[in-house]
């Protein structure tokens, strides 16, 4: 069939848009120009904004993609990717630019990508440490001062820690991300690094309460985190094989508990999980931190499927709204699955919404409006990631009619207090024997 002039121009525009992004390293100006160009060409389903500035005043750009890119919509979960928080770990920075390119050119053409963008709001930050990237003048596989921000701070040791007090001065880049996390309802996230090939999951720090004495720091959602890490590693070209880059260490199935690998204080993934109600894993994507640009195309091929499949996991589990007798949303209601309480309870957002990532199975979901009774509902959660929607389960408190009450979690080391209290009430053999005798008598 003949092609009209209008169609031909459209095809040419599409080709030029795709061809515009080369497999090379893009400096701050080029990165900004590319993001602005993408937003200009695809303004109906993208939104570009800066969440803050670096020490040297560079914008921390985030491109948002989805059917409603400018704002949160009830029922649509928020997902994010963050790369280049260590300025000399560069592969993730370029992968996210190519992911953007793939998503915008596939939307309304590829049915899977179309459904993914229609049902998910995806936030992509190609660089959290633009100053560090610009400062890395001599690429190195192992280390450069560009790892740190302009103030010489490691941004992945700069967040509040749930286990130990920190006197670290919160950096502008860190504060911007913390504000961003508080202002959105993020459900799932990953941060992209380099220097190894593994998917690492929370906790990065720990104590006896989380099992660190056994060399593993376990979160209440350990099963979900293992699933998330394996989702990435098995969809990656080779990560699942688990052989670490220089064979000093192997990672079975290409995953590791962060603490088991090495202890880390003030990490971003623990902060997301504890204070942001967002499950985040850390993806180490290249043995060499800053590999030659001619390898970037292969890195994209190795990671493309994994990057997409991981986003789909934001639709695991259960979601819903908590409302009062008049149908008004109840913010700050606590909604958690029985048997997996969070040290900082997961609460509904301003729309009364909750999102809980859970693997398929039967769960009791407990909704509590502080000062009122709890409500428990048993749910059978299917694997809904292929349907791009978590199971929906709402809660209505007919006897409740109240305005929003602010609820915040303290920034003090929460698990430190838990460890002290558990040690204080640790039963001695005598007390255990006494409890057993009393139980028998009562029976």
From TrEMBL:
**Enzyme active site:** 284
Keyword Hydrolase (UniProt): yes
What family does the database annotate?
Belongs to the peptidase M14 family.
- Annotated signal sequence is 1-20
Asked if the keyword Signal belongs to this entry, the reply reads yes
Gene encoding this chain? Cpm
Q: What is this protein called?
A: CBPM Carboxypeptidase
Specify the Peptidase M14 domain's residue ranges. Answer: 24-314
Q: Which organism is it from?
A: Crotophaga sulcirostris (Groove-billed ani)
